[in-house]
Amino acid sequence: MLSRLYIRNYAxxxxxxxxxxxxxxxxxxxxxxxKSILMGALGLILGERxxxxxxxxxxxxxxxxxxxxxxxxxxxxxxNKEGLDYDxxxxxxxxxxxxxxxxAFINDTPVSLQQLKELGSRLVDIVSQHQTLELNEASFxxxxxxxxxxxxxxxLAYKNNYKAYKQTEKLLNELQEKxxxxxxxxxxxxxMLKELSEANIRADEQELLEREIDSLSHxxxxxxxxxxxxxxxxxxxxxxxxxxxxxxxxxxxxxKFDDGLSELINxxxxxxxxxxxxxxxxxxxxxxxxxxxxxLAEAEGRLQxxxxxxxxxxxxxxxxxxxxxxxxxxxIDALGSLEKQITESxxxxxxxxxxxxxxxxxxxSKRAKSLPxxxxxxxxxxxxxxxPEARIKIDHHMLDNFxxxxxxxxxxxxxxxxxxxxxxxxxxxxxxxxxxxxxCIKSLISDKVxxxxxxFDEIDTGISGEAALKVSQVMxxxxxKHQVLAITHLPQIAGKANxxxxxxxxxxxxxxxxxxxxLNEKERVEEIARMLHGENPSEKVIEAAKELIG
Length: 550
Hints:
- The chain has 17 helices and 15 strands.
- Among the domains are: about 190 residues, 3-Layer(aba) Sandwich (Rossmann fold); about 110 residues.
- By secondary structure, the chain is an alpha/beta fold.
- The model has no long low-confidence stretch (mean pLDDT about 85).
- The longest helix is centred in the middle third of the chain and has 67 residues.
- Strands 2-1-4-5-6-7 form a 6-stranded antiparallel beta sheet. It has a 6-stranded mixed beta sheet with strand order 8-12-13-3-14-15. Strands 9-10-11 form a 3-stranded antiparallel beta sheet.
- The chain is elongated and about 160 Å long.
């Protein structure tokens, strides 16, 4: 229940502070007095978007604050989920700064606009002339049936499975597309893998081949250099080793007189052993090295094969080719994995389909059983709002495919007059008829939906006389269970108020402002008399106003 609404510096409102009754609150005033501005301010704390142009004084911030009594509305889960402090009196505040920045608070905790909107939708329902157009929407009509049929549990279970079904269906489609593409690429992958496998590539092979080619290309130079080195060291007269032996003989004669010379002889022995080994190795290289055009051609061909493969696959080394080979093998192996995933997804989808079919049938049955009662109750309510000949028929059949709310197709057919053809609401109902029908529907579901406050924003447009009186009686009855705020131009409806508020403008030299005040009993009579007859009402009109108030 909205107990208080405070507004400061919004549009042409300087400051108002309104305390509402728990039952029927009526708001009246001349056209253009600012009643719609009040609705705009209320919309701000319900999560509507704001603009800087709402500031009356551009150098001051705008503040709209609402106090709601929420004890009976089971909102603890929302507050826990959002990490907000719960209090039986919930205070929602919206501020718009001079720079246009908007801030929102729930019980003094900053919140996002989405959080504010979610809470606001559970606190207030605004029914306007525009909203009556929702009556023509299939989703609204289905929601009405669900509210009366009390399908909450069944619908929640269905929606959870439907979500899983659509996710699995999407996954299966993605897997099948991936498999189809993989199948198209499979021959290519196998050809490439065969080519790389047959090449028998080793990571270090290219460097070894390059060294081998260098050796084979310069065999004569290598052979000659190694042979000459051998001959110089140990292969001809007067070679290096012979000279070292002579030097050793010279030192031996004198070594017995000097330990230092003995050490030199030992070092010469080591040197000659190493030099002899080098000479032998050089002789081996010279003997093993020879021109081999066939081996050179083979090595060059092998190297060119590796280089061509690297260029073909746009890589820089044999290691990259080996990595690519592993990738091709992985792509081929993945086909088997994809087949397994597709099989599992199909099986999951089949199970979900079976479950959804059962749940959809259960929903369909429960909805179908509620339709006669809904039609009957709406007929009774239509009589109460001066539409005794109006008829409503709910057309219902099952669709072939699953939808987000099941497989039911609901359509409201309406005839306003006796003998009239039953057609879709959009084709046959006038604005006034839609307004009364919306009032009947809200009354019908008021006990089914936990909605603290309902606002009727001039939905009485297009009706008058006895119809207006009947509408006022239904609205009064509705307010016995839920708080109602109604903006109206009809005295019949205003007369039923538990609290009557008057919106008016007042001007000074510099500006015009909107104000609102709660009327006392005398002022109520005067306002309703004015609504009946205009300014300066007669005594008869005054008496008629008193009669409307009762």
